[in-house]
Amino acid sequence: MVAAHALSQRVPSADGQLTILSDVELAVQAGESLAITGASGSGKSTLLGLLAGLDQPSAGGVHLLGRRLNDLDEDARARLRAGRVGFVFQSFQLLPALSALENILLPLELAGRQDARERAGHWLARVDLAERARHTPRQLSGGEQQRVALARAFATDPEIVFADEPTGNLDADTGARIIDLLFELNASARTTLILVTHDEALASRCQRRLHLVAGHIAQAAAA
Questions:
Q1: pTM of the predicted model, to two decimals?
Q2: Which backbone phi and psi does 127 adopt, to 5 degrees?
Q3: Exposed, middle or buried: residue 31 (CB in 10 Å: 0-12, 13-18, 19+)?
Q4: What kind and span of H or E run contains 138?
Q5: SS3 at position 46
Q6: pLDDT tens for each residue of the chain, 223 residues long
Q7: Do 9 and 44 form a contact (C-beta atoms < 8 A)?
Q8: Residue 159 phi/psi, 5° resolution?
Q9: Which residues does 208 contact at the CB level (< 8 Å), separation at least 6?
């Protein structure tokens, strides 16, 4: 489903080149769940972005859904992800001018789903927010916004979901409920899940864990 070979990322800095990731190797099979852990600045979010094709590596390569991302430009990578890849972010990334229902509806329409509105309503109900369909993000709590984001991520029946610190902006109790919901939805959809987290409770729910230290894989094992 996803594979990286000799993956490295360097960016310019005042002292020359700053290495964020160095020679990362990994492979994730269909239906697996993988937690990427590590201290702040270890390269976790950078690795997630490269695996999802949101950025291009300095060296090495990534295969996603059977395609080599290095061979695709930004538009082609976006087309590959459309309807097949879901995202959940720490900051929710809901469009502020759209209602909860419309935020879920948008990726379905972009994927060309004929049943987009019906499906958006179904997924809003799946996360117990049917009564908040017309509310905009600013009218929702942080936990409610993340529930909308989960519904948006899974609504297109994606083959893989990438999650970047999905509980990072939530209190402990709300975060625990979001973790339960994330894995409930993931199990029912049988989706591949790759997530970045510093939350031990969240990482322990994944089948495998990859721990980064200063851009290197320091440990890869069952969670």
A1: 0.91
A2: -100, 20
A3: middle
A4: none
A5: helix
A6: 999 999 999 988 777 788 899 999 999 999 999 999 998 889 999 999 999 999 999 999 999 999 999 999 999 999 999 889 999 998 999 999 999 999 999 999 988 889 999 999 999 999 999 999 999 999 999 999 999 999 999 999 999 999 999 998 899 999 999 999 999 999 989 999 999 998 888 999 999 999 999 888 886 656 5
A7: no
A8: -80, -25
A9: 32, 33, 34, 35, 220, 221, 222, 223
String of b and e for 1-30 (b: at least 16 CB within 10 Å)?
bbbbeebbbbeeeeeeeebbbbebebebee
Q: Which helix (H) or strand (E) holds 49?
A: helix 44-51
Pair 82, 110: CB distance under 8 Å: yes
Q: CA 193 → CA 58, 66, 101, 196, 203, distances in Å?
A: 25, 16, 24, 10, 12
Comparing CA positions, the residue from 193, 192, 191, 149 lying closest to residue 170 is 149
Q: Coil, strand or helix: which one is 184?
A: helix
Asked whether the beta carbons of 7 and 57 are under 8 A apart, the reply is yes
Query: Residue holding tokens 């996603």?
Result: 64
CA pseudo-torsion sign 5, 45, 124, 31:
positive
For residues 76 and 136, what is the distance between their CA atoms, to the nearest angstrom?
Answer: 31
